[in-house]
């Protein structure tokens, strides 16, 4: 596949009007456990409302990726999601999103980022290692909807 130019891609904070495109991206098959889409949408929307870290990668007018993090009371940012449209993967978009999230974490006075990567996604593991993230303990996520 021919590499696309990322020179016109900008990273910015998400807006309410971006949510439908973000929700579409969040339906990536890597994140598809049962009953998750509605919870995922509420979670993403609440991050935006709470002024947490929600960044989008924009090419012209299209959102082609997003990254979401949460600053805790401590000096830690939890990096929950980094999703890039499948046509834009391995083009440098994820690196731009990750670097922007790191700058925003520093701006919010964080001293550590705890990142999550889907176990089956070799790409996210390569990306995090490339940017000097160290693998932590192996855990399995459990959820209970109330």
What does this structure look like?
This protein has 146 residues and is α+β, with helices and mostly antiparallel strands. The protein has four helices and five strands, in the order βααβββαβα. It has a five-stranded mixed β-sheet, with helices on both faces. The chain starts with 8 loop residues before the first strand and ends in a 16-residue tail after the last helix. The relative contact order is 0.16. The model has no long low-confidence stretch (mean pLDDT 85).
Please describe the topology of this protein.
Layout: E1 9-13, H1 19-25, H2 36-49, E2 53-59, E3 62-71, E4 76-84, H3 93-107, E5 112-115, H4 122-130
Parallel strand pairs: 4-5
Antiparallel strand pairs: 1-2, 2-3, 3-4
Superfamily at the CATH H level?
Gcn5-related N-acetyltransferase (GNAT)
Distance from first to last alpha carbon: 44 Å
Name the CATH architecture. Answer: 3-Layer(aba) Sandwich
Please tell me what the overall shape is. Answer: globular
Sequence stretches where pLDDT stays below 50 over 5 or more residues? none
CATH class: Alpha Beta
Spatially, the strands of the biggest sheet line up as: 1-2-3-4-5
Sheet-strand content, in percent, reads 15-25%
Mean pLDDT: 85
Summing up helix and strand content along with how strands pair, one would put the structural category as alpha+beta
Largest sheet: 5 strands, mixed
The helix count comes to: 4
- H/E topology pattern: EHHEEEHEH
Number of domains: 1
Oligomerization state: single chain
CATH topology: Aminopeptidase
Instruction: Give a count of the beta strands, DSSP E runs of length 2 or more.
Output: 5
Helix content: 25-40%
